[in-house]
Amino acid sequence: MSPVSLSPVIDLTDVLKDAPVGEWIALSKDRSEILGTGKTLEDALKAAKLRGEDEPIVLKVPPVSALIL
Amino acid sequence: MIFPFWTFPAPPAAAFPNRAFIKRPILHVTLQRGTRSVNALAIVDSGADECVFPASLGTALGVPIPNPNVYVFSGTTDQPQNAYFDNIHVHVWKHVTPGEIAFSFDLYAGFCDTLEHVGLGLLGQNGFFSRYKVTIDHTNHILEVV
Q1: Domain range spanning residue A42?
Q2: What would the pLDDT profile of B33-65 be if each residue is shown by its tens digit?
Q3: 0.85 surpassed by complex ipTM
Q4: Of A68, A60, A24, which is closest to residue B75 (Cα–Cα)?
């Protein structure tokens, strides 16, 4: 079996396509759903907690001007 | 252990008019300090000297910011940036089973405001590449950490 079939890319393009750029995002642990967003990390964590997730994955979709080189 | 690349949306730019996404060598990590923890993503970045994360993640862990363990560094510009370091524990998730840990390690990690807009951590030379043999295979979109 090839390494590619062992490890398909984890694709966040769909779940993040409408995510607010530059804000903190709280994703479900299975990476399928945005549970909360916020201008601060604390706001995103609180929103996720209201949806029943105490330990979401947190990240941002950076603005185009801030993409990592 | 083998991990897949992650694909992020990336709108077209003048230099890349046909671009819609970017593939990155990323690890899903839980950062832990005492009883506090936060789940985040970190880019495996051979060009980074240290392992640094957005300041908000440090605050969530209870890392004092600022603190005396300051490191002044620069990135792609000559503007000085301050990272405040503290000892944490890093758990790396298996990608196939969210929540299951592949491996863990202690890390003297920096936290800085200038990564705040990116929202992702950087696993760099000191602390990560110094500890593991890392192979980034962009052709097959996999990352191997041994």
Answers
A1: 19-63
A2: 999 999 999 999 999 999 999 999 999 999 999
A3: yes
A4: A68
Instruction: Provide the token pair at A14.
Output: 């769909």
Structure tokens at A45: 């964590």
Of B4, B119, B120, which has the smallest distance from its Cβ to A10's Cβ?
Answer: B4
Structure confidence at residue B77 as a pLDDT band (50, 70, 90): low
Q: Which residue has the higher pLDDT, B14 or A34?
A: A34
Q: Contact B43/A68, CB-based, under 8 Å?
A: yes
B41, two tokens? 């993503």
A9 assigned to some structural domain: no
Reported CATH class of domain B2-11+21-145: mainly beta
How many interface pairs between A and B have CB atoms less than 8 angstroms apart? Answer: 102
Set of chain B residues whose Cβ sits within 8 Å of the Cβ of A45: 60
Residue that has been written with the tokens 């000085």 in this structure? B80
Is B9's CB within 8 Å of A3's CB?
A: no
- The chain B residue lying nearest A5, using CA atoms, is B140
